[in-house]
Predict the 3D structure of the following.
Amino acid sequence: MEMSGDRWRYTSHYLTEVFGHQDEHLAGLMADAVRAGLPDIAVSADVGRLLALLTRTTGARRALEIGTLGGYSAIWIARALASDGKLTTIEAVAAHAEFAQAQFERAGVSDRIDVVQGSALEVLPRLADVFGPESIDFVFIDADKREYPSYWNAVRRLVAPSGIVVVDNVLGAGSWWIDDEANDHRAGVDTLNRMVAADPQFESVAFPLRQGVLLARRL
Ligand SMILES: C[S@@+](CC[C@H](N)C(=O)[O-])C[C@H]1O[C@@H](n2cnc3c(N)ncnc32)[C@H](O)[C@@H]1O
């Protein structure tokens, strides 16, 4: 069955309206980010709430994010960590990392978040050495879609038993969609979706919230 573009947009707006309540800082963060020159590509507030809900569900003490942007999703995650919990978030662009750090201070969560500036595929092996296998309770992947299969290979062994991995944009984004077979972003997420679905150490599902969200739980 085909869902028309209008109906898709209506559904997304409806879900954000009903489930996307947030405080004033989060509500204004992306407008400030855009004024500072960052792209307007953060998750929506309903996806933010999903991240918080799942972080809390795992009782996460250690969380990892790939793709910080202005810190919007990181704040949702950090607020939901266990009281002694920490989030490490990786961002390639220095200006994004600096903007996010200022937002973490404003939100009162800077003591719970370490921003690591660098390219994820260079940073992840170093973090793996520091954290060790099966040490991370919650992972959110939201950076370069073409690199999604490599991110999965790098993080899967770091996830603790019963830990959860969330991946954004597994059905598309502004300039491409899952039915656009010629697009290399599409190829990255399609490969990732199939790898995770076939991974015997995880149970997983993806669903069309906003631009597609994948959930995987380490067995
Ligand atoms: C979609 S945005 C992240 C949005 C953020 N998770 C949120 O919802 O608030 C993707 C971010 O990943 C960063 N990024 C892209 N490629 C990267 C890479 N290879 N390593 C680390 N960060 C990368 C981009 O600079 C951008 O800030």
User: Anything to note?
Assistant: Strands lie at 62-66, 86-91, 113-117, 136-141, 159-168, 172-173, 176-177, 202-207, 213-218. The CA atoms of residues 33 and 70 lie 6 Å apart. The mean pLDDT is 96. The radius of gyration is 16 Å.
